[in-house]
Every structure is written in C-alpha cells, then in structure tokens.
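Budget justification note: compute hours in this period were largely spent on complex prediction jobs such as the one shown. Inputs:
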Amino acid sequence: MWGHMNAARLPAAYPQYFARAEGCRLWDVEGREYIDFMCAYGPMLLGYNDADVNRAADKQRAEGDIFNGPSARLVELAELMVDTVAHADWALFQKNGTDATTICAMTAREATGKRKILVANGAYHGAVPWCNPYPNGATAEDRVHLIRYDYNDVASLERAVAQAGDDFAGLFVSAFKHDLGKTHEAPTKEFAQAARRLCDKTGAALIVDDVRAGFRLHMGGSWELVGVKPDLSAWSKAIANGYALGCVTGNDRFREAAGRIFVTGSFWYGAVSMAASLAAIAKMKQIDAVGVMQRMGQRFRDGIDAQARAHGVKLQQSGPVQMPVILFDDDAERKKGWLFCTEALKRGVYLHATHTMFLSAAHQAADIDRALEATDAALAEVARQFS
Ligand code: PMP
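Corresponding output:
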C-alpha cells in the first residue's frame, strides 16, 4: 500500500481492506461496520454510494465513458462549474487533485513568463516531484523554484514575494490551513487580502488549492468566506462524489495561457465521472449540503467538547466543523490521539488522529449521537490511562 491511505501507517487495530459502504457507513472485509468520519479522505460529500449520483453515472456508462473525444457532459459540467464557482470564467478537467494543482502552476508560469511558485510551509498540494512533501525520489532541482512562507503570516508572505522578485509566477494558498497533525486555521481576512494585493501588484496568479475543502465550506469556492477571489482554483476530491475527477477553474486573465500549455491524460475526457459530477453538484445545491454538514459537524464538536470537559481531558478541536481535527494537549507523540481513535474504532466509529476528518451530508443526527456514545467511552479510556 502507498500514500495517505496506507493502513500500515495507522495503528494495528485499523482495518486495511474494505468491502462496501453506504451513506456514512463503511464495512471492512471482516464484516465490521463503522460510522465513518473520513469519507474516503474527502470525496464522499453526499455519502457513499449516493443513489442519485450512481443513477447519473450508470446512465452515462450505458451510453459510453471513453470516446475519441469528450461527450456533451464536458460542456455541461464546464458551464455548471462556471455558474457555481464565483471566480470562474472557464474550467478544465483532469482526474486527480495533483493534476489540478500542477496545471495551476503551469498556467501561472505560462501566463506570466516567470518561474517562482510560493507555497506555505507544511501545506500539501500533491505528490509529483515539484510539490511532493518528501525528498525521496525527487531532485533538489525539481523544487528549485519553490519559495516557502507561513500561512496566515503576512510578513512572511511579503518576504517570500520579495525573494521571488521579478520572477514571481504564482502563489498557492490552501483553502484553510489544514496541515497534517497541526491545529487547523481559517485564513484571516488580512492574510487573504494581502495575498490578493501582492498578486495584483506583481501580476502573479493567486491560486486556491480547494482539492480537500472544495464544496464542503462554500459552493462558490472556499475563499468566498473571506471575500477574496483567486485567479485559479484546483478541485478534485468531492466534486464528483467519489468518481475520479479533477478540475481547474480560472478567470479570463488566465484563459489563453491555460489553452497554451499541453496537458492530457488517457482518461481525462471520461464522461461517467462528469455525469456523476453534474448530478452531485446539483444535489449539493438542492439539499444545501454545506448547511447539513455544518449542523452535523457542530453537533459532533459540541458533544465531544462536553465529553472532554466531563472526563477532564484537555483537547483542541479545530478546522471548520464539517472538516475537523481533534488534537490532545501534551500529546507530541499522538499517543492520546491514537488511543482515542482506536477505542472509538473498537466501538464502530472510524476517526483519524492527525489528518483532517470529513463529515458528509449523509451523516444524520442519530449517526452523530451513536458516534458520540463511542467517543464518550474512548475519552473515558484516555482519562483512565493518562491521568
Ligand atoms: N491538494 C490538497 C489540499 C489535498 O488535500 C490533496 C489530496 N490529499 C491534493 C492536493 C492532491 O490530490 P490527489 O491526491 O487527488 O492528487
């Protein structure tokens, strides 16, 4: 196994293989059932196996998926993305988040004729050499044009822009600060406005990486919450509710440059995932999925806070309620965090101690309450072992 879903990186109690899933429930190959708070690390925004999305995908599959070019779904979906995403004048589709972030970087360089790309310390934008968080298998030259800054720190951003000088092509910002194992933070208005101002001043592209958060915080794009429009955005995970799709949206200033770069993939025109995305986005709007996830996420957060107080366990919940992370105080080695998760897992609730977790619009109050019974027992165990 590899990457972020490599179960060997999780405690031994975690299942490695899964058999099926429905709504917010997941079954492993041993037949154990879990209420899931990872949503396949993001994609399942409407819940697993959503009937409306599946119906649209099945209908398209019966007509065909891969042809010598796109189906009409491509045009319909590009129009829907442009109607939905506030900054978007055009859309370009791929399969993965990394495809989307890489195309954003290429478009920024092509449009500006410059090379430097700014990324925040600790931020994840994909696993290809230009942005891979680990050195293995890449060369120093692969990242020679990356410059780091600290998220939400205007002075550090200004220093990075100064370092880029007249070679500044683009600035990547995560939708919010959601680094692995770290307290999650919303972008401050001051930081978001500074990012916009510095890009306007220099002509560089402001790029929001909405791969993880896209459509969970705001249907118009996550930075609508701070009132700042990016030039380019990268999307993937949830936009087709589990069908493989990536997307770059951009404004008119970057349209021609996006058309000049050569990017492609054998499956990028696949119509099934586009049909799924059309149905998924329509349903997200129809049921106000963001509102549902906020209500359920708040219920979960309030419940855990009350339980932590009752058990005398100190922990911090951060991130938007629909994308939480729970970090325990005095827990540098994450022993409390993983004990909590393992105890919850034994009781049928799948959590993660360091990665952003995800609510879906399929989580209902009864599921949250059932999960809270497990977290209560898990917190009691943390209190018992660590007090
Ligand atoms: N950007 C962010 C913020 C992500 O969370 C991820 C995936 N975890 C990516 C980019 C890369 O997406 P993918 O794994 O689909 O290539």
